[in-house]
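The records we work with from here on pair a chain with its fold. Taken together, the tokens spell out the fold as the letters spell out the chain. The record below shows the convention in full.
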Amino acid sequence: MHIDLIEDMDTFNRLRENWDEVYDADPHATLFLSWNWLFAWLEKLSTPWIVLAAKENGSDARYVAFFPLRIDTRIDEEGRLFNDLRMAGSHAADYCGLISFPRSEADAISAFAQQIKRMRWTDFVLGNFCGSDDRFRKLVSCFSQSKFTISQMDRVNKTDQIDNALCPYMDLPDNWDRYLETISANTRQTLRRLLRAVDANSEYRITHATAETVAADLNTFLRFWETKWRSRKGSFTDNLVRAHRAMLSRSFDRGLLLLPTLWMGDRPLAALAILMDERKKSFLFYITGRDEEFAGPQPGLILHGHSIRYAISRGMKRYDFLRGNERYKYSFGVKERRLHCYVVATRSGRNLGGKLDVRAITDALKEATNLHQEGKIDQAARAYRQILETDPRNEGSLHRYGQLLAKKGDHVAAKRMFKLLTRIRTDTYKPWLLLGQSCEAMGQFVEAANAYREVIRLQPAVPDIFTRLVNVLFKAGRLEEARKVLMASYGVGSARAEDGASFSIH
């Protein structure tokens, strides 16, 4: 089995037909692993991602399996950087994993695992892995206990004791009356009564978002959601609202979102965000929002009843409540399945291969820079060194680590950083200026002068650069050169001389 690495949107875009073929054939595939969902998600992802694509040996063969992944970067209190490998879609997707032709599953998983073990990571996070027990065992069995640990993640919410590894769902019959027979008599009677009121369009009504109304409907929906969750989510709520809005808007644009809203007259009471998977004939209930001050009939019961009935009318075969074993879900006659939530970790507690993943260098530099700006100098230095161990010519790390070293007084090491940077960035004066300053601090005045001459060649308008050059030439004992530079400096910009600019020698 051969593995290709897909790392750009153009290539991923060309996979659509092949991806849909595998997706349709995989009995465990869900919307969150569809090409349609992943394209919209990967397109906006700010962290590096990679899709492992498996095919039989031979360059012309079609792919038989796909495993979408993303790479996170984290940093500890000591400034040590790590990469975590996660399944693509996590944080936005309730279900993650891989897709495969059933006949190719075993070989593809083995090949995926071998490729993953050649990558740079500390934790391989298998959270919300959706697939058969057999599929999961095939994957984790590829990671030997001599080199890796495998631990289960706790998915129980400590606030309300909801187990987010349990996923209630129901297989839908071909008509509404037959579905009603599967639930309790009390729930059945209540649903019939409430939906008759909705159908009569008297006191209550339900609308579905359209292209004309979706923006307003999302505003209403997210306002309800924010009201309920702000006290628990705190300052993170604003980010979640923005993320939900963006994700749901993209989903609507791609034909994936059903957004029913319950009204009492002109007053909105509640809304559901339901993801629609036409290929797998499934409705997936994502999130809800409701008017917490409304004291009438249960809006959630009405909207879910309406949505289940609508799903059946559309020929859907499954209604999935996704993660969380909230009590109300069980009144709809659900079954449940448990997700696999585990972490495979290196026994060393460090990245495989001892280095960072080169794909995540940009994120690593952000982490190091944040430490630097916070004044955590030793930690920042450690992080910069890690980056340079992976990418010795990384411009950002050479520049910032050099500045850090210079500020600490280690001009010998700083000089090495800046000298290398001058060979990489031949088009800018800044590395030469920094090099000159370090040389000057060490009393290497001739080298400093040569560096400052390069600054002038590249950008003669740098403030005080002629003063710097004159000073180091004077200190080097090259008085005639200093005099010529001083005189030339006045001639370079007559305006400067007219303004009375001085070039003192210290």
